[in-house]
């Protein structure tokens, strides 16, 4: 683990520095390496402290704290979800996170996570799809073309070998923005007028929407055989952490004992993934704290070769550990 | 609520700026005004979302997240407790916190809370004592002379009118440091060789220790009639939040149904505080999230007249709220 340069400061990755970091590494390489880190941590899933996220719900949204620990490091993410924010020019989701040393309780990294969450969410989706999709698939439908959509498209390109994305959003300007941003990045991009048009010929269907008021995006007859999708229908369902997904995911619509498979067990080989090309597989992704933990560890690792961070004066460091008051006194004199 | 100057930045109070703020306001005025804010929030206790703190325990300590909300603002504190840290020149307790706008989920303040926690803990203890102590008391015993002790002494001076403190610590150098730091601040300071000597003539006994291995500081025959103490014996017991105190406080040694009084109800007048001069009252303080919330709101309020803060580039602010990827793309060109 990187040690802070002084006892009183914590390495801090601002939004600007996160953009520097991602551009320097390259967004596709970043998500590919991050997906490997996520897989690594999924494989040692039983080690992690799986505290449920702590949510504060209000009329317009939710503020959540997502902590976890592997016993050596501790990480948490602060994240909000306010679908109405975009009306006022604000982000639906903003986030930041902290990584700490379990042995001392001292934070060793603080970072913006609005961008990092988009990257880890896309990296996770693509990681899961790579293990569950039929091998020949090269076309993905991407329904919901908001802030996360370009990251999803590029993650599936880099990690799953997708070469065509079929975009649809109820807001055509969102699709235009997404298509424009994806231009020249090695993907064939098709903008579609309807979800039904978007899924035509797609072997993977990814839905990315925050607004629960229009949650039913795919009706049953839109999904063909052998498709891997990220929404609920007749499918073998894969999840991150059942106790959380049954509350937050699409499967909350299903019976509480509807069978689901924990994805980490596919990675360890404990249970099979896709068992036939005709099977419909579904990943009901709600995001889990270990994915943020993996992301925090990954960017911490990157800082060694890409030192895009500041030193945040976050921790009191008196001359003697018990002399907090003396530090306050003498700072006035100095 | 102070609005950040730009959508992408959050006002940040570093350790250095917290020291500037406290010195400019004055430590006694700071704790007095803070205690009023804490009282104000205690009086509207039923309004608060009282999530239990989320603790990650390890061999050497604990890392906790303490969130709460009054429905308008949301606050949380990150705090660790690692008694062994002082051996390596680190603080036992470090902390930072965030205040957010519930309507948008956006953070509106981030601050160091190592110093602020010492201030709010002392302000809370003194606030409670002011309502529970016999009116004539002017002498306090202060057992445990670590990082929080000077703050406790000055809070009881400013808020309760204490004019003499009797110090004791198992480590005499801690007592020497505390006494030296308190010199010339209007308190008579007596350094004592034993806890028994320290409590002689004291109308208030405050114990401040983090190490649970030597938790029994006061034996029953050390406590006289009419004393307000902060440790367990034969006493009428006041607590912040019973579900938390029964797990973390001194009263975990007592039966699960041992009667306790919630201090906020004393403030609202719903239940009486001290009912006779001879009564022994005890505040078993473990710290609660609302106290940190009050502290966050208080320092946010102070920033208006005392602008000791930086602008932290913590939040992504794309030109269009959905254009997170475009922001990343174009930042490279600009």
Automatic annotation (TrEMBL), chains A, B:
It comes from Gemmobacter lanyuensis. InterPro entries: NAD(P)-bd_dom_sf (IPR036291), ODC_Mu_crystall (IPR003462), ODC_N (IPR023401). This is Ornithine cyclodeaminase. It holds the Pfam family OCD_Mu_crystall.
């Amino acid at each position: 683990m990187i040690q802070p340069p002084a006892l009183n400061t914590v390495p801090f990755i601002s939004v600007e520095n996160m953009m520097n970091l991602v551009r320097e590494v390259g967004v596709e390489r970043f998500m590919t390496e991050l997906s490997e880190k996520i897989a690594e941590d999924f494989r040692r899933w039983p080690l992690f402290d799986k505290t449920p996220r702590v949510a504060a719900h209000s009329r317009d949204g939710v503020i959540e704290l997502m902590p976890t620990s592997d016993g050596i490091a501790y990480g948490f993410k602060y994240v909000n979800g306010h679908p109405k924010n975009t009306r006022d020019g604000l982000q639906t989701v903003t986030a930041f996170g902290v990584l700490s040393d379990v042995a001392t309780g001292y934070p060793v990294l603080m970072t913006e996570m609005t961008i990092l969450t988009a990257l880890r969410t896309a990296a996770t989706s693509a990681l899961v799809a790579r293990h569950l999709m039929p091998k020949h698939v090269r076309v993905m439908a991407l329904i919901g073309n908001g802030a996360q959509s370009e990251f999803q498209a590029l993650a599936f390109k880099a990690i799953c070998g997708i070469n065509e994305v079929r975009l649809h959003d109820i807001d055509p300007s969102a699709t235009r923005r997404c298509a424009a941003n994806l231009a020249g990045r090695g993907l064939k991009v098709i903008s579609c007028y309807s979800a039904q048009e978007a899924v035509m010929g797609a072997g993977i269907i990814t839905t990315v929407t925050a607004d629960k008021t229009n949650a039913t995006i795919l009706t049953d007859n839109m999904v063909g055989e052998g498709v891997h999708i990220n929404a609920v229908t007749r499918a073998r369902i894969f999840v991150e952490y059942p106790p959380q997904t049954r509350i937050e995911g699409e499967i909350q619509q299903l019976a509480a004992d509807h069978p689901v498979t924990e994805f980490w067990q596919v990675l360890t080989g404990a249970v099979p993934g896709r068992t036939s090309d005709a099977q419909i597989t579904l990943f009901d992704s709600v995001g889990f704290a270990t994915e943020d933990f993996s992301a925090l560890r990954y960017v911490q690792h990157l800082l060694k070769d890409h030192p895009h961070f500041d030193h945040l004066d976050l921790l009191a460091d008196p001359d003697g550990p018990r002399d907090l008051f003396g530090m306050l006194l003498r700072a006035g004199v100095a």
